[in-house]
Amino acid sequence: xxxxxxxxxxxxxxxxxxxxxxxxxxxxxxxxxxxxxxxxxxxxxxxxxxxxxxxxxxxxxxxxxxxxxxxxxxxxxxxxxxxxxxxxxxxxxxxxxxxxxxxxxxxxxxxxxxxxxxxxxxxxxxxxxxxxxxxxxxxxxxxxxxxxxxxxxxxxxxxxxxxxxxxxxxxxxxxxxxxxxxxxxxxxxxxxxxxxxxxxxxxxxxxxxxxxxxxxxxxxxxxxxxxxxxxxxxxxxxxxxxxxxxxxxxxxxxxxxxxxxxxxxxxxxxxxxxxxxxxxxxxxxxxxxxxxxxxxxxxxxxxxxxxxxxxxxxxxxxxxxxxxxxxxxxxxxxxxxxxxxxxxxxxxxxxxxxxxxxxxxxxxxxxxxxxxxxxxxxxxxxxxxxxxxxxxxxxxxxxxxxxxxxxxxxxxxxxxxxxxxxxxxxxxxxxxxxxxxxxxxxxxxxxxxxxxxxxxxxxxxxxxxxxxxxxxxxxxxxxxxxxxxxxxxxxxxxxxxxxxxxxxxxxxxxxxxxxxxxxxxxxxxxxxxxxxxxxxxxxxxxxxxxxxxxxxxxxxxxxxxxxxxxxxxxxxxxxxxxxxxxxxxxxxxxxxxxxxxxxxxxxxxxxxxxxxxxxxxxxx
Amino acid sequence: xxxxxxxxxxxxxxxxxxxxxxxxxxxxxxxxxxxxxxxxxxxxxxxxxxxxxxxxxxxxxxxxxxxxxxxxxxxxxxxxxxxxxxxxxxxxxxxxxxxxxxxxxxxxxxxxxxxxxxxxxxxxxxxxxxxxxxxxxxxxxxxxxxxxxxxxxxxxxxxxxxxxxxxxxxxxxxxxxxxxxxxxxxxxxxxxxxxxxxxxxxxxxxxxxxxxxxxxxxxxxxxxxxxxxxxxxxxxxxxxxxxxxxxxxxxxxxxxxxxxxxxxxxxxxxxxxxxxxxxxxxxxxxxxxxxxxxxxxxxxxxxxxxxxxxxxxxxxxxxxxxxxxxxxxxxxxxxxxxxxxxxxxxxxxxxxxxxxxxxxxxxxxxxxxxxxxxxxxxxxxxxxxxxxxxxxxxxxxxxxxxxxxxxxxxxxxxxxxxxxxxxxxxxxxxxxxxx
Lengths: 620, 435
Prior knowledge:
The structure holds two protein chains of two kinds. Chain A is built from 22 helices and 23 strands. In chain A, strand 8 (134-140) and strand 9 (145-147) form a beta hairpin. Chain A is an alpha+beta fold. By secondary structure, chain B is α/β, with parallel strands linked by helices. Chain B has three domains: 6-118, Gyrase A, domain 2 (2-Layer Sandwich), CATH 3.30.1360; 127-205 and 372-419, Four Helix Bundle (Hemerythrin (Met), subunit A) (Up-down Bundle), CATH 1.20.120; 216-364, P-loop containing nucleotide triphosphate hydrolases (Rossmann fold, 3-Layer(aba) Sandwich). Chain B contains 15 helices and 13 strands. Chain B starts with 5 loop residues before the first strand and ends in a 6-residue tail after the last helix. Chains A and B meet through helix 19 and helix 22 of A and helix 3, helix 6 and helix 14 of B.
C-alpha cells in the first residue's frame, strides 16, 4: 500500500460526501481536516432516513469495497433491512435499509473519530485561498487561514439555498442552518457554469398520533443482509413500516390549494427530480390516478418522528395539515415539522475532471449535491473519489473507476459527460454492464484496485485477500469439475445425451437446477458461504451473456483508448451539427468512448469523429 | 489541420471525348484560378482555357465550381471537363502536383464526403454498390441504400428497442412504485416482436437482394448436340450482353453476362452431359457441369423434341429451380404437352422462355435491402440477441433488457459506431480512384 505523506487535504462539509471525502483522504495518508459548522451534525440524514435501494445499494457496496464508511454506519443503524427486487435476477437486487437517524449519526461520528490522520474543525468557510491559479486553502469566518494542498467542497444545497413553503421564503441550507453565501459568490466569480435545482421533503409526523392499527405494514426481511463486507450480522432490532394511501379528498384539498404552493405559484424555477415528484406534481401530472401510496417510516427506534415517504410538498402549513388529516390512519396525526421545497445552485459537473477537480481551479474538488446529484449514496460515492484524488493532487496520479468496473464509474462518467438536467439519481439502467456490476461482487471488482491506490486500509485488505482467494478457488472448481450426461443423470439431472461434458456451473445455469439440488453431491458447494453461493448463482444465471459483455467491455476500452486531445477542434468537423459541437466543447470528452456518451451523439457522428481523430497524427 | 487537396480523373480511364477531373480540398480554388485565370459563378459551367503554370496551353473545356460545403465531398470542389486524352490527363496532373495537390487514392473523395458528414457508413456502402450497378434493378436497389434506406430502418429498430428496454428498466429500477405493472414483459413484447419480424424479413429478402446485386446464375445443361450452344447464342443475341473483362472461356463451359429483363444474369453453357463418360477427360467436364448446375439459381435443361421422354439421369435435375426446354421443335410436328418447346430457327418458344425465366428471377431476386456482408452479419447478430428475449422476459427482466441492449448495440455498429481499428479502410478501399 502506498501513502501520500506531507499532503494536507481540507474537506468543507460534514454530510455524506464530506465524511467519505475526509475519511478517504485520511486513509490515503494525507493530513486531513474536516471543517463543518457543528461537529454534532456530522452524518446527519437530512431527508429520507434510509440508505440503499436498487442502484443506490450497489453504490453503497462499492463504497464499502473501497473501505468507505457508509455501509458500516448503516449496518449499525439499520432498523428495516430489505433486499429489493429479490424476485428478479441477482444483478438488480439492491440492499436497502431504513435508518435510526440518531444511531446513524453516532455510528458515522465514531467512525470519523476513529480514523487516523483525520481532525474535525468547527467553523464556517468564507472563502478559498487562491495562489497562482491554484486553490491552496480556505479562509474561515473567524478570520483564520488554513493552508492545504487540496480542498474538497461538499456543501450540498447550501449554495444560495432558498426554502419555500407556501408563500414563505427562507434563505437556508438544511432547516436551521445558515447558507454559505461567501463561498457561493467565489464559485460564481470563477465563471463556472451553474444551474438551479430543487428538491422537497415531506412533513414529519408524530408516531404516537398515527392510528397504526388501521394500516397495512411492510416487514423487514427475516434474514437481514448487511451492507458491509466487514459486517458479520445485523444486531439492531428490526421494525415494520406502515403503508397508507392518498384518496380523492386528499387530491381535492391539494388541487384547490395549488395556487398557494411554491411549486405552482411560479416562485420555484429550479428543476426537480421527475422520479421523485412532490405530491402536488403527482396530483397534477397523474390526475387520473385515484390514489398514491405512502410509506410511513419511523425515524428511529426511540424517536417519535415518522417520515411519510411519498408526500413531499411545498404547501402552506395549514394545507399540509388538512391534506394529511384526510388520509386513513393519519386523521389525528400531528405535524412535528411541516414539509418544504428547497431550491439551490449546483455547478454544472461538466466543468469537472473525472477526478472531480474543477478544470478552472486546480486543487479544488467538488462532491455531492453541489454537482447536481440527489441522494446520500451518490454524494458519498463522489466524496470518496474526490477525497482520494485530493490526497493525490499534484502527484500526477489519479484514482478513477471506469464504467465497466462499477456504478461509481457510471455515476462520475455520467456527471462529467452529460451534466445534469434534474437531480441525478443512480439507476441500474444507467449501467451498460449491469449484469457484471452486482452488489454481491463489489469487492471482487474494486477492493484490489482500492488497495493498489492506497485508499483501502490494512484490515480490510487482509480480509479481502482471504475471501477473494477462497472465492476464486470455488469459482474455478465449479468451472473445472465436469460431468458427462450419464454422470449428471446419476445425481438426478437430466441433460441431452450429446456426450458433452458439463461443468457444475453449466448445470447450475439450467433452468430447473438450483444449488440445493447439487449440495448433497458436492461438498465444496455445501461448505460455501452464503455470499459465495449467491455469487455462484449469479455467475450461472448470466453465463450466456458473459462472452458478449466481455466483448462489449473490450470495445469500450478500445474506444476509451482513443484519446481526444484537450485542444481538439470539434468545430472543424463539418458534418457535426452546431448544437452537437457546442455540447462537445462543453463536455470536452477526453476519449472517443466518453464522446460516444455525450447527449445527442449518433453513431454516424461518432464515426465522423473517429475519422477526424485518426487523421490527426497524419496531418497535425 | 492542413488537409491535402486531392485530384483525380473521375470519369473512366483511357481515351474519351470528354473526361471529368475532380479537384477537392482547400487548394481547389487556388489551383483552378492559377490554371484558368478565374473561378466563375458557383455551380455554373464556365468555358475555360487551361494553361500550365508556365503559361503554355494545355486544353480548353468547361469548369464547374462548387464551394464548400455544397459539394459532393463537402470541401471546395472544382470539376474540369476536358478532352479525354492521356496526354491532357498527364499534363493536368503534373500542373496540379506542381501546385501542391495530391493524386487521390481509391475512394478518397467518398472518404472526404464521409468525413464531412455528407454520407454515413451505410450510404457509403450503398454508393460503392451504386457505382458497380450494371442493370436497372441493381441500380434501383443501390440507390435505396445510397439514400439511407437501411440506416433509416436500423434507426427505427433501435428506437423501438430502446423504448421496450425502458419498460423493463422501469420495473427493475422502481420495485416499490405503484403503477409499474408486473406484466412488464407483456408490455415490452409487442415492440420486440415487431422488430424481430422486421429484421427476419429484411434478412430473408437479403438473399434475393444480394442475387439482384451480384447477378443470377443461369446454367444450361443437356446431352451433347441437344442445341445448348444454339440456345446460348440465341439468348445472347436477344438480350443485352454486358462486356466483361472476365469472360471465362474454358474447354468445358462458356459464360456471358447479360441484362435479362433488367436482371443481371450470368449465363453459362456447359459441356454435354451423358450417363457414361467415355474418357476421364470427358468425366471431368461432366463433373464440372454438374457442379455449376448445383449452384445455379436457374437451370435450363435441354432435350431434343424428337427423343421422347427425358432419361432418368437428366430427369433428376428437374425441379422448382429448373425449366425443361424441348429443343429443335421445328423438326417435329407433335410438341410436348408438359414442357416448353423451342426452336432457335423459327424462334418458337424463345419469348416464352425469356418470360418464364424472368418470372423466376422476380421470385428469386426481389429488390429490397441488400445489406453487405458486414451489414448482414450485424443484422443476424441483432436478431439472435432478440431471440433470447423470451427466455428471460418473465424471470429476469434485467437479462431480457440485456438482450435488447445487445441488439441495439449491433444496430449502432451497423450505422457507424465502429471500433477505431475497424473496417473503415476496407469499405473505402473498395472504391476506384476518382470516386
